User: Fold this.
Amino acid sequence: MRRKSILVCGFARIAFVVLGLLATASTARAVPAFARKYQTSCQTCHIVFPKLNAFGEAFRLRGYRLPGETEEMVKQPPVSLGAPAYKKLWPQAVWPGEISSSVPLAVNVKLADMNTSSLNEDGTVSTVKNDLQFPQEVNIFGAGTLGDHVSYLSEVTFGENTDGSVSVELEHAHMGFDSPFGPEDLFHFRIGKLAPNVVDGLQEMWLSTNAGIDSLFGYNPIGFNGGTGLAEGVSPAPISIPAIVRGIEGYGIIRHRALWVAGLANGIGPSATDASGRFDGNSAKDVYARFDYKIGGMGLDGDTGGQPVPEKNWRDNSLRLGIFTYRGDGSNIDFSLTTDLGARRNIQDVHFLRTGLYASLFIQDLNVFSAYLHGTDSLQVFNPVTAALLGAIEPDYHAWFTQADYLIYPWLQAGFRYETLTPADPSVPSLRTSVANLSALVRANVKAMVEYQRDLREGDNHSLNALLRFAF
Amino acid sequence: MIRFAVARGSLVAVVLLLNMGPLGGAGASITGTVKVTGLASSADAVVYVLQAPGSFNPPAKPAEMDQRKMQFIPHVLPVVPGTTVRFLNSDPTPHNVFSPDNEKYNLGTWPEKETKDYTFNKCTKVPCVYTQLCRVHAEMEGYVVVLQNPFFAVTGKDGRYEIDNVPPGSYSLGVWHAKAKFQPKPVTVEAGKPAVVDFTFAR
Assistant:
């Protein structure tokens, strides 16, 4: 009985989360402020936005600077905040900088027609047909550079709730220090609320799916026997692998082909009962790292090695391989659970480790990319009244996805993704989801999309959604 | 504007020639184009003869560098050693002039329509580049470039330059630019026969 309950709950959860992601998840970015600055098309950096081509990925990694950028490429000359000669006077003068000559703002608007079916805990099926979420989400970006070695990105997302209220989320707010010393692009530093490069380089995933990759980011590792499925409404938010962190990150490009990343992050937020107002649940910091190597195609910094670049700029025949890891510390951060007998318990994820592999293969108009993640947790169960340690387990889980995107025309792309998650709790079978997507650029900055998602274990959990997204 | 820039360079050279010492007589012009790829403009490059025989007296009248609309005008002013530069303020706001280069100086801050002079006679190894800055407006920047001789010109927006009345002879022609470094080029000037030298620099 308990197993069935968990299973049904799991179905509902995956249905809710996968289908509900349209209203919650977005790290996808299309920032027309850059198009204005360089007087260039979105297609310079994007295949079908927000998916980046190799040039766009180099632009991102270089701190929002074009590969080989020169003064004449910047069509909106910046406003000087100090003559360069003031560098000679430092520390007797402020180091010179600059700002963009126009306000570097950009807006993304997303409209959605939602059609969903989900299996409830009591065995009934809930369906929604043609729920016109107009708009579903509005993102406001501010992004650019402040002189030669400083960059920034901020994003505020507005979502309208069913009761008419508006939710606001600060998704990104970080400053970058780009090549402050050493060879160009070998050292970059970012500080703030940011998408860690552990996952940001996987951003091809954000194209054809309007949903995120839940198997990687949405898993809840907390449970008496380990995690059972995806997290929803869990406070504080447990960490599978974080899509956004508050932290400091260093990264760089080695010899055009290798990417190194090392970061430090707050980690899990405070317990639900913690009234201190802090953002970090404990004093320990999480750490993460990544290393990628790209074979063929354009270099990660946009270097072409003197070779001609394909006329069709989405083509980048190459193979990129990566390994990443994230180690977190959740000690003294309580997750409150109730046993089958109704007893309250606190669980702490004292320390956890995520390791993964990533691969992305481009062959002409086809891009196949995949990631595998293995996670281990050290869970300790406490009596919430006496704080006595009642038990400890070290469960592990794994998840992976693979996705294929094919560009039929420069404006039309088909995508298919399969993802699976094997939770730590052995009583819960693996979650398996598939997504099929067709994305069309009506204009370079207007995208129409039809997407079908299906829970492969339970046929009643599926969705068919149409979206219109535009950026300006 | 381009014509003005070229003419300005020529005019300065002519004025200086009137004051020069041993050289004189019929000369020829050196013309050409300076192209700095990657920069929005090829203006404000100083093309000059590195070394000409003889010594050259500074002009009797001060050269002028104005501060107008929050800019140093001209942006680049080449002079010979000993030249006095008169810094004007044509803005309704106070301006300051100082340079962090070479012997360093600070002329203070003064109001509209007033001027301050500074004589560039401490340059020991030409070219001496003096960045002109304003403490009141940190974005303002100009350059005074002290050269050995008056055979120089400043490029216009199209990168063109013309140095007039260069005495016949063989020289090295150099280019100074705030954002690029150029290798000198040889040039032979024959009487009444213009010489053409182009420069290209990729940033």
In short: The longest helix of chain A spans residues 2-20.
